[in-house]
């Protein structure tokens, strides 16, 4: 009997040892994580992040998957339907609710709690942007604001002082008139509508209007301040004639014109810093200031989040990389590459990393910012806005007519959300 008991005891110990060995092997097993993103300008920085991450996590292989932004969410939508989403991918505000409400991305509250992760260093507004139904789905990666980029050489040649925080909208208009030179095919400013975040959203807000109400139930396109804010931006083309036409900017985008010295000023986001820094002409000839004041000084703030696909087979490994991407170490790497990190206390490094541009302007604009306007079906009503403002910009309808159509159709969409 004693021998039998001893045999059973030894057998159990061997089984426990075997199970323990299996768990250790599983914990150290190699895994491959696919990471989806859309900005090629950040590719080298992302490679640096992967390299740094792998110093402590050599068993987690990261594969970077670049998709240009104009194809990015179309590709993701198809991948979600087919169960082939990247393990981790960039998410923005306009598309977040759709992915969260359809269970395509993973809530991370439990992971945050289990790791006792401190979220205090991240801006509250950016954390809130990626919360749905009282659940958190992303840690902030970065944020961006809008500044007035200008060509110092063109300003010098025209004998004009550079833009600063004393500028009103009228100062921008008057400087644009001086800088416009039809014989040289040079324009004072580009009133592009290609990117709402870096264009008319800012004149709407600065003029005291709004795109969508805070409760996400009403359109702001019947508000006189909204309409006037759009009109002032529109007038740069059709009244003051200091901007390329909509058709010209459809053929050659405004950023390309700015990079070749054909446009003296443009509204543009901080996420363009790497591109302007790597372009020889803009690196030597341009700088940035705060946006001019209208009824107030305002702009759009937005930030990206890293999300985990709900059908990922490597969620634990994906979480380790997501944590790292929002860490102080990763924030400093982003800062040196010209991306405003979301992690509080690392922005000074971002400013110091590019001394030839006045990047403090973007931090100053963060203090005068309003959240990117979103709702559950952002893509539906944003397409309506773009389509109708494009008609106004090309002269097919007035700003008032466009705003009336936008308001009516947007209200219908919001009522059904």
Would you give an account of this structure?
The protein has 417 residues and is of the alpha/beta class. It folds into two domains: 30-143 and 303-345, D-Maltodextrin-Binding Protein, domain 2 (3-Layer(aba) Sandwich), CATH 3.40.190.10; 146-301 and 371-415, Periplasmic binding protein-like II (D-Maltodextrin-Binding Protein, domain 2), CATH 3.40.190. It contains 20 helices and twelve strands. The protein has helices at residues 2-27, 43-56, 69-81, 93-101, 109-114, 124-129, 152-158, 169-179, 200-206, 224-238, 246-251, 254-259, 273-278, 280-285, 315-325, 328-336, 347-353, 360-366, 378-393, 399-415; strands spanning 31-37, 60-66, 88-91, 131-132, 135-136, 139-140, 146-151, 265-269, 286-289, 299-301, 305-308, 369-371. A five-stranded mixed sheet has the order 2-1-3-11-6. Strand 4 (131-132) and strand 5 form a beta hairpin. Helix 19 (378-393) packs antiparallel against helix 20 (399-415). The longest helix is centred in the first third of the chain and has 26 residues, at 2-27. The chain is globular, with a radius of gyration of 25 Å. The protein starts with a helix and ends with a helix. Residues 1-27 have low confidence and may be disordered.
Number of strands: 12
Uncertain residue ranges? 1-27
- The CATH H-level superfamily of the largest domain is Periplasmic binding protein-like II
Percentage of residues assigned to helices: 40-55%
What is the CATH class of the largest domain?
A: Alpha Beta
| Rg, alpha carbons | 25 Å
Which fold name corresponds to the CATH topology of the largest domain? D-Maltodextrin-Binding Protein, domain 2
User: Largest beta sheet: what is the strand line-up?
Assistant: 2-1-3-11-6
SSE class: alpha/beta
Shape estimate:
globular
Integer tally of domains:
2
CATH architecture of the largest domain: 3-Layer(aba) Sandwich
Number of helices: 20
Largest sheet: 5 strands, mixed
Distance between the termini: 73 Å
Strand content: 5-15%
The overall pLDDT average reads 91
